[in-house]
Q: What sequence folds into this?
């Protein structure tokens, strides 16, 4: 099993450009998440999807959109990139939410916006 | 509100013990602990639920004081492999819409 995979691993964008970060998991998990991590900081939740067909905003959703394409895939789109969106983006998945569960993280996408 | 972790950083010699604390201003349903090594993704260590239920992967212990809205992670007889940044995350409720809010981390360095 590959677990959680993310593409691309690295990306440089110019201000105003758009891009989509891809995430897929092969563990048949219901819930998926997108986090951003700024240098020396913790993880901040951007959006999450409790199940296929549903998405909800997290702590820092502004400037982002998401699509839960199917149970496996959860993409994050930046419509008009800004330097403040320079960060490392992690996708994660879990069997569910509430009660006992653990999140499995992908390797991350390092995004620089100039 | 983001939970507060202390200390922000700690340096140990191999074999020493450490305690990392996590506190919240809100009533908590659960506390999650993750470790992240430099340049890698966070990895699950433990979850503690209100009422005492818990699940963990390694020989790491933790406590959850529901009344004080605090949790502590205990690292005993530390090994070099324990180095990394430890994050606590908290949930204030149990529902399909609940989400983890992470603290800013505690950086742990183990020296031989």
A:
């Amino acid at each position: 099993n590959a677990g959680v995979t993310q593409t691309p691993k690295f990306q440089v964008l110019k201000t105003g450009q758009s891009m989509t970060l891809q995430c897929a998991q092969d563990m048949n998990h219901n819930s998926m998440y997108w986090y951003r991590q700024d240098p020396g900081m913790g993880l901040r939740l951007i959006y999450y999807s409790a199940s296929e067909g549903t998405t909800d905003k997290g702590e820092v959703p502004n400037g982002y959109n998401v699509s839960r394409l199917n149970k496996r895939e959860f993409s994050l789109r930046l419509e008009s990139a800004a330097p403040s969106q320079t960060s490392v983006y992690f996708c994660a998945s879990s069997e569910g939410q509430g009660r006992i569960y653990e999140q499995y993280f992908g390797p991350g996408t390092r995004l620089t916006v100039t | 509100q983001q939970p507060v972790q202390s200390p922000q950083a700690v340096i140990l010699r191999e074999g020493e013990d450490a305690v990392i604390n996590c506190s919240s201003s809100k009533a908590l349903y659960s506390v999650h602990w993750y470790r992240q090594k430099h340049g890698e993704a966070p990895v699950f260590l433990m979850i503690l639920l209100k009422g005492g239920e818990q699940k963990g992967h390694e020989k790491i212990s933790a406590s959850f004081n529901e009344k004080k809205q605090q949790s502590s992670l205990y690292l005993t007889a530390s090994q070099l492999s324990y180095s990394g940044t430890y994050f606590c995350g908290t949930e204030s409720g149990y529902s399909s819409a609940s989400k983890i809010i992470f603290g800013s981390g505690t950086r742990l360095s183990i020296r031989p």
